[in-house]
Amino acid sequence: MKDQNEMTRKEFEALPLRENWQEEIICDSLVILPTRKNHDSGYKCLDFVACSKDKMFRLSGCSDVMHVDGIGGYGDNWLQRYGKCPTAVHPIGWSIDCLKSGLLRIFAHSYQIKCGRSLSSFEFWAIPRPEEIERRKKFENAFN
To answer: What is the pLDDT of residues 101-136, one digit of tens each?
Structure first.
C-alpha cells in the first residue's frame, strides 16, 4: 500500500469508490478530497478517502458538509448510549494535517473512524481502538 503522504491528488482521485454507499466503514484516517462538482446547495461536493493499513478507497463524492463525530458532535449512537442529548462529551483529540499533495487528512489518536452512509451530509465518528477501551477500563478502575 502506497504511503498517503507520497500520493498525488490524481492518485487519490483514481482510487475506487466503496462498493455499497450504505455500508458503514471503519478506517484509521480520512483524506478530504474536494471535487470540482457542484452540490445542489451551491457549495462544492466533497469526497473522502478511507485509509487503513491494507486498503484505501473513496467514500462519497456527493456531500457538501462533513459532520465530525456526527451531527451535533455527540458521537456514535449517542441516543442509545445516553437516552437524551448529553450535557458533556468525552474529548476525542481530532487532528488534521496537510499531506504533500495539499490535501487534508483527519484522524484521532487512539481511535479509529467509523464512516456513515454517503449522503448529502457526511457523518463520521471516533470509535475507540481495543487498546483504548482497555486503557479507559484501567483508568476507571483506579478510581473505584
So the answer is: 999 999 998 899 999 887 788 889 999 888 877 877
In sequence order, what are the beta bridge partners of 60? Answer: none
Place of cell 493499513: 53
* CA–CA distances in Å: residue 130 to residues 17, 111, 135, 136: 28, 9, 9, 10
**Residue 119 vs residues 43, 62, 65: alpha-carbon distances, Å:** 15, 7, 10
Q: 125, 88, 121, 122: which is closest to 108 by C-alpha?
A: 125
CB atoms within 10 A of CB 104: 14
Total domains in the chain come to 1
Question: Which three three-digit cell numbers place residue 142?
Answer: 483506579
What range does the domain containing 17 cover?
A: 4-142
pLDDT at residue 12 greater than cutoff 90: yes
Name which of 126, 16, 115 is nearest 66 in CA terms: 115
**DSSP 8-state secondary structure symbol assigned to residue 18:** P
What is the helix (H) or strand (E) element at residue 13, kind and residue range? Answer: helix 9-14
* Residue 82 CB coordination number (10 Å): 14
